User: Fold this.
Amino acid sequence: MEDNGVKKRSLVFAVIMAGGAGTRFWPKSRLKNPKQFLKLLGKASLLGDTVRRATMLVEPKHCFVLTHKQYQDQVHESIPEISPHNIIFEPANRDTASCVGLAALKLSKLDPEGIMMIFPSDHYIGHETAFIKTLESAIAFAEKHNCLMTLGIKPDSPQTGYGYICCGETLCWEKGYPIYQVKKFTEKPDQGTAVHFLKQGNYLWNSGIFIWKISTILREIEKHLPELWEKLKKIEPLVNTEQEKEVLEKEYPNFPKVSIDYGVMEKTKNICTVPGDFIWDDVGSWSALEKYLPKDERNNTLNGGKHISIDSRNCIIDSEA
Assistant:
């Protein structure tokens, strides 16, 4: 971790990654209408809820959404409060490292020392007041230090689909929250390793929510993903110009396809974490909804409008009526 003694208040941006083709909620989710655009937990889509939370911390003009170009209609319908100028359409799916790199490149033109918050578009967050306070702590620390921040979640089971953060020493307390140096970042371990991590007691799940300076993540990409860095440098002169769309159509499909977790987070030694005391769920299946939606007297989980239940028990009922 590097301390640069920055005094000036930086701009803070929210970047929401909404380009995934999440189809795990079939038959409701489809390739043309993936999970992030679904109203699975109330009246708003998961993307809409993510934008609402992000704009508790930043003005809408500082909230940016990246998604695949095939979702233009869905994204405009789902988040009309976000200006079309703040929606970045990827011409190809090149995973999260390219997505983050492109967003950082664009935002560096606005404030190279600004803070980027990175949000997945399709997660559930409970206890939102605690969530915002945790983010404020991470932002305050990231403003003063050139490190990569991630929000950690206390694990309750040996999940193999999440990244794990091994917490080292406590560096300080920021706005009432402890900041830990990360000793190791392990993306999606096998079952035995996940069980071992839980027994150790000093591991957190990686929420996929990151906070860092724009300049810091660009330096880390240059160091750990040189191929991506060269691609970003090639398009940099035309970013935020009228020629941006054309150069992205030509160059972006050739960007390396790698996640930010594997490409940077597993390689760098420059990570800190703040543990969150909010409820977090990546909502990976229909059964995940049961924890957050009301139930009727027959233990049916209910989402949406009217329905007729005839001898239905222990079902998940989703209605748009």
User: Anything to note?
Assistant: The chain has one domain: 12-284.
